[in-house]
Amino acid sequence: MNQQNKNPLTEGAIYKPLIKFMLPVMLAVFLQAMYSAVDLIVIGHLLPDNEVQLATSAVGTGSMIMVLLTYVITGLSMGAIVVLGRYIGAGDKESAGKTVGATICIFAVFAIALTVIMEIFAPVFAKAMNAPSVSLTVLYIRICSAGIIAITAYNVVSGLFRGIGNSKLPLIFVLIACVANIVLDLVTVGVFHMGVAGVAFSTIFAQFISVVFSIVAIQKMKLPFAFGKGYVKLWKGITGEIMKSGIPLALQDFLTNLSFVVINAVANGLGADPTKWAAIAAGYSVDNKITAFLMIVPSAFLQSMAVFTAQNYGAEKKDRIGKALKYMVATTLATGIVLACLTIFGGKGLASIFTGDGEAIEYAAMYLKGFSLDCLFGSLLLMMLGFFNGMGLSNFVMIQGLVGAFLIRIPVVLAIGNMGNANLTMLGVGCASATCGALILCVVYYFVKVRRELRQ
């Protein structure tokens, strides 16, 4: 009985259970990236040659906006994950159930508000992004925005399962969505020739299918906390905890990814020559999907380290947190070196997976060479951000995100965009500069403020 009740994240070995928890998270992130990338692959290979570049840039630019919203949702849900993880670690089932109930209420309101905003302001966003085809980009954004409720539900449910230490069910949910999206993309684009509208519809409908399966799974499983309809309310103290932890993280994710939206707009604007505009925009749209795959492992480091740290912090086992941090520093550095080599030497091969357009492939490979620095240092940065999130230091996470985005990344990228000889490689280096600056802040903050607490 004691063995059955043992929590592998808070007792016994450290590295093996952490990696074992992380593997399903990694696969889920991979499938999430595949879920998004399939749209671009289908567009890039099934549409006529004269439509590929405009459609690719529309889907890439539109999905960049939707990814920005998704990161806001996941950032806010990270607050709930951290609070839930602490209560699970402390064995407080009542408060854990209230955390889930309050989370449902918060995100229901949030999803409705986001849907209204996106449907109204889609044309404004498309024009601000310098999209080569504003009409196609608006079409993609509006169809996807109609499913924000499903996007929110999926990310919240998956996040809560990871908060209780279950990383396998979120993997199953995203696998269902990924398979459904592939089938629907092939049908809507390959059979019914719906183009951009087809991939947008497929994306949202597949997400709804996944949410239905997740609800069925919740109803059939025994949860490690008390829960019922009476728990679904804005509990005063717990709602405050979720918002206090989640709002800084959501703001940090929003502003950080807003800086990437600025990069996308600058990249689209590099095509001053009308004959190159669509090709450059298409190339950078391909880069968005490639970099999502490249950051799969680092993203898994972030989520896993946040859950591990939160549960051990709640269980008052800080020595385990310190040891895990040492193991993960070595792991993430090795990962960063491998990813950097892949972007430097394999850029064209990676780009050719997403499109058959030769010009777009050339421009995509140019950006990836500069992005190699981001791969090298981004793995370590994301792992440390997961550690800080789990420690409840969301205000610092927000601050480093603001510094990286607004004091480094955006100014550097805008300066590069105004240079007469600017190219996508320079843009990739400019993007990586913020990662390096944020990593320095994290290392300094750890040694000055956090290491002492772990040793206590």
Q: What class, by secondary structure content?
A: mainly alpha
Rg calculated over all Cα atoms:
21 Å
Total helical segments:
15
- Oligomeric state of this protein: single chain
* Helix percent band: over 70%
Question: Mean pLDDT, rounded to whole units?
Answer: 86
Order of helices and strands: HHHHHHHHHHHHHHH
Distance between the termini: 32 Å
Report the sheet-strand fraction: under 5%
Number of strands: 0
* Largest sheet properties: none
Shape descriptor reads globular
Provide keyphrases for this structure:
single chain; 456 residues; 15 helices; mainly alpha
Q: How does this structure look, described?
A:
The chain has about 450 residues and is an all-alpha fold. Helices cover about 85% and strands about 0% of the residues. The protein has 15 helices and no strands.
Give the helix/strand layout:
Layout (H helix, E strand, L loop, with lengths): L14 H32 L2 H42 L2 H36 L5 H12 L2 H16 L4 H24 L3 H26 L15 H34 L4 H21 L1 H19 L3 H28 L1 H8 L3 H33 L3 H24 L6 H32 L1
Could you provide a short overview of the structure?
This protein is mostly helical. It contains 15 helices and no strands.
